[in-house]
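hey so i finally got around to running the thing on that chain from the lab meeting. sorry it took forever, my laptop kept dying and i had to restart like 3 times. anyway pasting the input first so we r on the same page abt which one it is
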Amino acid sequence: MNPSGSAERSHMKRVVAVVVGLLAFVPVSQAAAAPDVISAPSVALQGAGRIGNATSTEPAPTPPSVAVSAQMQRVLDLVNVERTSRGLVPLRFSAELNEASLVHTQAQAAAGSIYHTHPSTGEGPGDRISRTGYRFSTWGENVAAGYQTPEAVMQGWMTSEGHCKNILNPAFTELGVGYVTGGVRYNHFWTQSFARPAGVDRPAGTYNPAWC
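ok and heres what got predicted. didnt touch it at all, straight out
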């Protein structure tokens, strides 16, 4: 028996990544920084990528009813605790954003890695959201793997500047959550898809850099 090999296999890695699409919040950029440890045992942070995206300004249709799991609801609740404690409007679920999040989470679990842009098709978060029929004025995405609970993944995201900025972005009004267990490596995969529908006014509230 190889004790070091057993220890290595039991040493689960967790990884997180973030991307945000904004109209006028940050300059267009794409970062690919070296991994950075953010919590035990070994959490590698992938750099944030930010792009501007917008579609038609026509009003969005009335959202359909949303079916959610306990894990999804808990993530939304934790997001809204962070937002409302800082005077920001709470987010609500969107069926389309949940769909986009789940599809992306399933793909990442199958690949055993996390990413925002599909390595083969080049599809990004805005493409995935649009494919559900959702018309957005702005969007953002957080992804993660290895975190076993909503509380753990939210702690990971909130202690990472780019992910925290998405969660506390005053421009967002809706959220989608994807959660998948199993797959290749990591065993737990998460996606947050943030957006505001086209034609919906930007909520009141100003981001404070001290928050993240």
